[in-house]
Amino acid sequence: MDYTALSDSDREQMLNVIGVRSIDELFADIPEQIRLNAKLNLPEGLSDIEVENHLRILASKNVVLKSFLGAGIYRHYIPAVVDEIARRGEFFTAYTPYQPEVSQGTLTAIFEYQTMIARLTGLDIANASMYDGATATAESLLLALRGKECGNVVISETLHPHYREVVRTYMRAAGVEVRTCSMQEGKTDYARMASLIDSNTAAVAIQSPNFFGLIEDVSTCADIAHKENAKLVQVIAEPLSLGILKRPDALGADIACGEAQSFGNYVGFGGPLLGFIATKEEFVRKMPGRLVGKSVDEEGKEAYVLTLQTREQHIRRERATSNICSNEGLCALRAVIYLSLLGNNIRRLARLNHQLAAYLKHKLIKKGFVAPFAAPFFNEFVVCMHGIEKVCERLSGEGYELGFLLEPYYPSMRDCVLVCATEMNSPAEIDALIAALEGVM
After folding, report:
1. Which CATH number fits domain 66-75+344-440: 3.90.1150.10, 3.20.20.140, 1.10.357.10, 3.10.310.30?
2. Which of 24, 300, 331, 438 has an alpha carbon 20 to 30 Å from 96's alpha carbon atom?
3. What angle do CA 298, 304, 310 make, to 5 degrees?
4. How far apart are CA 45 and CA 110, in angstroms?
């Protein structure tokens, strides 16, 4: 309500109700010397029609590029039914299950989400309510550390650079040393990894497909870690890859974690995201986030319950396994709807993503780009060309986003770009990109 638009009598009545003589008394706690005793330099208000026209003018300045950008967030087709179901009021209003007995729909969705993540990874249990892949990775390493007197963790240089920064932040606060293993030809240097692990290492984190899209030898890393009784954490930033790659449990991973944004969630300018953690049953009482279980009520009917909620909102802070105080339930719901629709077609979709990426890589190499890494990849790959930054700028002017420039994060990879293709990049769009390259190179 606009106070200045009220009549004198209404103003007096309002002030009487709240117990002050004037509106100035409401700001008595603000020191006089820092008050702004002048009118704000703002234009007069606009009518609804004028605002709508102004917003149309602003919106017309937006440019939607044909994107080949991945680097941890992936653009996939989302069926309309995902939006339709996820926007239902029952889900929006039951945002977080503080009263689980009256949030059966929300708990059911979270239970199904946990079940699907567990099946995809092959591990015993999965949690909910993790922010994103970066924090899920850090929380997974803390999970491996919990109950141990270990002083270090080892992470690969091929782990997403943003994830590595978050891990360092977490571990610095926990007083844990972070050892970074160098890479060789775009993949983890496994011999170097073995030299970094000792009896004081709690866990080893490796991403596969890694940040460059390459498939790591997770089994070898697991063997190296397990020799020193360390846990192996496999990070997965593009979970669609699980449609055709071996599951983490088959590769010897103790914990799988990462980003599930690919499943039914929009790119959305970088969020919201959906972190996940799946692990073996031995960690069930040490996991962060929420665990929903299935039970029966007093009448014997199926019912869902919050089995574990070891968060500082529910128990003493010093006993909490995590201080993350939010719920990604709506993002998890979208993932459930998406995966339910996709079903076993996840294999076909994963193959299609790889085929499109392979086609794009072949076309770029024919156009003069160099591929520095020969290892198998999923739907992302690295290519290099002298003056790549200028090429990307010119392509942007033609309506294309070629990829993610790597030099800011990997200084030795000058003139290299990380390129991605999904089902959203048709062969015709790829051919159009190549044609546009001819005009800018």
Report:
1. 3.90.1150.10
2. 300
3. 115
4. 45
Report in angstroms the alpha-carbon separations of 229 from 4, 103, 174, 278, 311: 70, 41, 21, 19, 28
Task: Read off the pLDDT of residues 114-123 as tens digits, 9 standing for 90 and up.
Answer: 999 999 999 9
What was the pLDDT predicted at 32? Answer: 85
Tokens 């926990």, residue located:
174
Residue with tokens 């199904």: 112
How does strand 201-207 pair with strand 187-188? unpaired
pLDDT given at position 312: 47
Q: State residue 314's pLDDT score.
A: 55
d(CA 346, CA 117): 13
CATH number for the domain formed by residue range(s) 80-343: 3.40.640.10
Q: What is the pLDDT of residue 290?
A: 82
Q: Where in the chain is the domain with CATH 3.90.1150.10?
A: 66-75+344-440
pTM over 0.70? The answer is: yes
Spans in the chain with pLDDT lower than 70:
1-5, 93-100, 309-321, 323-326
Residues carrying CATH 3.40.640.10, the chain: 80-343
pLDDT digits (tens, 9 = 90+) for 307-318: 876 554 555 566
pLDDT at residue number 169: 96
Side chain identity at 171, as an amino acid letter?
M
- What whole-number distance in Å separates Cα of residue 256 and Cα of residue 226? 15
